[in-house]
Amino acid sequence: MPRTKLGPSPKGKRKNWDEKDMVDAIKTVRERKLGIREAALHFRVPKSKLRRLLSKQTDF
Hints:
The chain is built from 3 helices and no strands. The mean pLDDT is 86. The chain is 50% helix and 0% strand.
């Protein structure tokens, strides 16, 4: 029996964070006020994206 979709895919919800929040999170981590995990939780940004942007050492 073939599978059927029951509803919309959860993949449609991406980037529900604000760029200003990401810039503030990067600035806070670089100033060593918060760690990556704490900054991601405080500014409501993805931890993996924050870590990736910090590792590039570029201005966002």
